[in-house]
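User: Um, any thoughts?
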Amino acid sequence: MSARCQVLGTVPGFGHSISHSHVRTRRRFDPNVQRRRYWVPSLGRHVRLTVSARGIRTIDRRGIDAVVAEMLARGERI
């Protein structure tokens, strides 16, 4: 599963792990993405989305219909 949120477009960030001796090694900060299944009344079916924790809160706040309409407008495959 890719570490990309379908709602917000959140992608991994990159940086360094710094040890006690201050040696820097490259690391990756993945967003907290989860597979969620939502009922979308406007489409009349369930959709399965890969969303981050913040994306779940966005759906709760704005509603699944509004979020899915925005995703379809920008060409996101659902």
Observations:
- The first helix runs from residue 53 to 62.
- The domain at 13-74 is CATH 2.30.170.40 (Ribosomal Protein L24e; Chain: T;).
